[in-house]
Amino acid sequence: MHKINNQAEYDVLVIGSGAGGFSAAITALDEGLSVLMVEKDVCFGGTTSRSGGYIWIPGNRLAEKEGIKDDANSIRTYLRNELGDSYGSALLSQYLKSGPEMVDFFVNKVGVEFMVATQMPDYHPDLPGSSQGGRSLHVKPTSASILGDELPRLRPLPRELSLFGMGISSGSDLSHFYRFGRSVRSTVRVITLLAKYGLDLLRFGRGQHLVNGNALIARLARALFDKGGSLWTSSPATELLMEGGRVAGAVVVKNGQPIHVRAKKGVVLASGGFSHDVNRRSAIYKHPARSGEHLSLTTPGNEGDGARLAESAGGHVDTGVTNAGAWMPISKVPRPDGTWGPFLHSVNQGKPGMIAVLRNGERFADESLSYHDFVEKLISMPEAGRPAGAYLICDHKAFSKYGLGYAKPFLSTKKLEASGYLITASTVTELATKAHIDPDVLANTVSTYNISARDGLDPAFGKGKSAYGHFLGDLTAPNPNVAPLEQAPFYAVWMYAGDIGNFAGIKTSENAQVVREDGVAIEGLFAVGNDMSSVFNGRYPGGGSLIGPAMTFGYVAAKFLSRTDGAVSAQ
């Protein structure tokens, strides 16, 4: 790196600090290139840091070592059925080839420890070629101590995505929390975790046991620092530097001063997408998505910076995908200071004794669908321009086992009730009245559902038959997903249609090069992660369908630019 006055020079500039950006940066460093990563926020990690941290990489060799056979024909059969007419792109072929290579690189050369989700099925397990487990990976929990003095810059978990600020592993630990008080082993495990977290707070001011996406980012950041990479936080990139039609760097504002950062090999856009760019979001999403109408898990700084930078250089955003967003039902949890935080309904609604209804009191889908498919069904039923959403409803028997949204069965719910987040009532009709639902319609919906649910059946939507639904449900119940709602009191939480990222994004080549409308790549400019248009064309085949492609194409981009000077290739 060479820096004089307000100028700096590196081989590679990465804009954004999620998993895709880190993947590009670490791979480039391993190729012997100098790398600067810039992040507009005060903390690094992006949305990855608050995610489950899964990556969907079919054909990965870690699953093979676990005895799970996953041949290329099955993978392609599944994706052909999943993607339909959009199957067969060069982008998809690159993903299938490079995904397993990326995993090998991070395991063998970087030291990231992935675990195989052996019990997690693909999201559409009834499709030919689907897998009952092994295509999704997640990182092992790690100690925050690996970051040393850099720990304060790691983005902490929002309170709503944790328990008192403590992250809960989306693997076995989550199951222990659901069985707290009903299993001696689980109760001991939960108490142990809470005690350790309490001691960490006293000693360090934050938890030291990192899990999920927080653990993944910590491991990637440690690798970046160990390999000599630079990471500037509170440093937004405001414009690209062009030289003779080639992207040669960017203007980065650091400590209030603009610095011209030249990137000899290329600039990688990894700024997290446009979920908080209300104007772009409203123009692209097909349901009401103005402020307050649609919620997002993504970090507030994901305001479409990458898209605007790409467009300024001649790139464009591909809006022709099946779904513009990676959908997620999200409830809005009030905070004492008047703000709110997001709670993700990624697994809650698939538990027995729960149903989801529209404002008219009617069910609209199998509640044990994947979160993406659930919201896709939800937004296909617009209600006269009103924000897309649904009530998740349960009875006391279900609540006492699983809670409802952010409301936990072993904690007082008085504040959540007072804030309006949690609605409670002694009867279904009273619950409907409080929620402004037609009481007769909701009473009929519940009574009709209960008739078959007593036998573990759901003839209306077939809930309880899917392997993925069972994975989400309670395997100790007669039917993992179906039970009647009969025991008072009854509870309801409003869920908005939300997202955890974008599938509409910057159009790229199979090497992650940003391309113009005519398909010609823009020299020196790459896009990965939520900035990049979905390799799955807006479909969501399995757990980790955002971070898996993000890390894969970060790896691909860095490998490509290390061999070239970001040279042009036609599509």
User: What's the architecture of the largest domain in CATH terms?
Assistant: 3-Layer(bba) Sandwich
Total of domains? 3
3D shape: globular
Mean pLDDT score = 93
Using only CA atoms, what is the Rg?
A: 23 Å
CATH classification class of the largest domain: Alpha Beta
Classify the beta-strand content into a percent band: 15-25%
CATH topology of the largest domain: FAD/NAD(P)-binding domain
The total count of helices amounts to 16
Protein name: FAD-dependent oxidoreductase 2 FAD-binding domain-containing protein
Pfam families: FAD_binding_2
Cofactor: FAD
GO molecular function, one term: oxidoreductase activity
Task: Walk me through what this model shows.
The protein has 571 residues and is α+β, with helices and mostly antiparallel strands. The protein folds into three domains: 300 residues, 3-Layer(bba) Sandwich (FAD/NAD(P)-binding domain), CATH 3.50.50.60; 40 residues, no CATH class; 175 residues, Succinate dehydrogenase/fumarate reductase flavoprotein, catalytic domain (Flavocytochrome C3, Chain A, domain 1, Alpha-Beta Complex). Helix content is 31%, strand content 21%. It is built from 16 helices and 23 strands. The strands form five sheets. Strands 1, 2, 3, 9, 10, 11, 12, 22 and 23 form a nine-stranded mixed sheet that branches. The chain starts with a strand and ends in an 8-residue tail after the last helix.
